[in-house]
Amino acid sequence: MSQILSADFFLQQDVVAVAKQLLGKVLVTDINGEITAGMIVETEAYSGHLDKACHARSGKTKRTSVMYHEGGVAYVYLCYGIHHLFNVVTNINHFPDAVLVRALEPLEGLDVMLRRRVKPKLTHTLTSGPGSLSKAMAIDLNQYGRKLFTGKNIWIEDRGIEVTADKIKSTPRIGVAYAGTDAMLPWRFYMDGNKYISKGKISYI
DNA sequence: CTCGCGATCTGCT
DNA sequence: GCAGATCGCGAGG
User: Fold this and answer.
1) CA–C1' span, A167 to C8, in Å?
2) What is the CATH architecture assignment of A3-191?
3) Per-domain residue ranges for chain A?
4) Distance CA A195 to C1' B2 in A
5) Are A27 and A113 in contact (CB under 8 A)?
6) Which end of chain A, N or C, is less surrounded by CB atoms within 10 Å?
């Protein structure tokens, strides 16, 4: 009943569509035999050179180079010098699109996640926010560029969770006020009512 | 609950 | 030099 997303899934050329399709899918990591899994409940789409909020807006750098790879690899970067943020690279070769995963609903390995986050018990903050979920899932620069469809280390599964269009809400992306009119694009998507949604400040302009 | 702030690294200006 | 796709803490309501 659970199917690892194939390489083809990530080659779709509409990153906004992929951001919506990833809601309800399950992100899994196996780090030194410790399995953790969580349902993706919040995403943001970032689309290539023309998107003023996308890291690829100023071309290819050491940090962004993996965004130019064909879809299906991980783009992980350090934000504010502290937090690792996890993105799914999409689109075909040379088109630097990515989906930022902003929140998960924990499903498996709760004890491992709590230990990594140094938390005594489960609350909605365990995997609410991109930096938090990366810490809970042990995602860091070791995952940079790693393939997401091999079923090893890190991958994404379809477990048949159905997310109908009326359950998907959209808003502008978080923390991208510097992006001019692109800050208003409604490219943040989340599952309505899920308690693990992050509470970041929305940047309208 | 909300607000303000410090931590700490990358890459552009 | 500085701002950034953030978080957790303490103080105040």
Assistant:
1) 31
2) Roll (3.10)
3) 3-191
4) 19
5) no
6) N
